[in-house]
Amino acid sequence: MNMKALTFACIGLSAAALGLGTSQASAAECGTKDTITVAEMTWLSAGSLAYVTKDILSTGYGCNVQIVPGDTVPTATSMLSKGEPDIAPELWVSTVKSTWDEMTKKGTVYKASDIFADGGQEGWWIPDYVAEKNPNIRSVSDLKDNWKAFEDPSAPGKGRFYACPPGWGCEIITNNLVKALGLDQTYDLYPTGSGANLKASIARQVSRKKPFLGYYWGPTEVISKYKLKRLEMPAYDEAKFKCLTDAKCEKPELTGWAVGEVAVAATTSLKNKAPAVADFLSKMQVPNAEISDVLAWGDDNKASPEEVAKYFLKNYQPIWTKWVPADVADKVKASL
Questions:
Q1: Domain 121-244, what fold?
Q2: HSE of 39 in the Cβ direction (CA atoms, 13 Å)?
Q3: Which single residue of 115, 126, 215, 295 could bond 130 by disulfide (Cβ 3.0 to 4.6 Å)?
Q4: Domains of the chain: which residue ranges?
């Protein structure tokens, strides 16, 4: 072998060794060479959090990460039966309670953290300008005698309450709450038809500074973008609420929604083989107001979940840098 050939051979061996060393270092830092799957749900907050998780794991820990499509029920079912995906950053436990109980009992899945600092928030909301103009309307119990604040000129004589879309869990609950409060005497339930129509109704009313009263949930871009205020409700009562969920509830009584349990769900197998990843997931949590602001930015800019994730990582570093060691945070920052 001549000197030139020997030189190239040495370079090739060095490059191969360097590549192997990098691969081994990444696997060691991550804890596993296996591909880690992260569920991307169909709504903006969950999709964005999936990409936040992916970016931190891939650039910060050197993990092999794959985003997979998901939704609350099929993802929970798949995690129970197949042990995949590995991570669901925004799993609404309260909507799949029986499946979740089975998952945790089986021991294949656990809650790494509560993703929202204040939990999922459901209730009846009004815009800030309506609240400011009507300081006497603070709770749902104030609505009956103050219906004129929500009167629609096209249907005078009653206030307008924007109903839950048909088929949603909140539809039966809201209808029963209306009865419990006696609002059927002073309000008309205005049909919305779908989640998109409900959102469009809020946008239309707020843009014209007209009244809005209806159901919504948070954290979402809608709460931040349209500056909605949640009306006060009594503390959650399990027995009363159970009746509210029944369309045949004979005597509905007033109670508030429970704080929604929304988990960073992960497989136990991932926790066992990648303890550093599990430590990161255990600290993963976002304040409700801030994530609503992030989502409002995404909605205004028609951004994809991946773009929203980048925006969050660039502009909300005091939040996510607390989830990871400093060297990991530095790598993520450098990638931005």
A1: D-Maltodextrin-Binding Protein; domain 2 (3.40.190)
A2: 29
A3: 126
A4: 32-119+260-335, 121-244
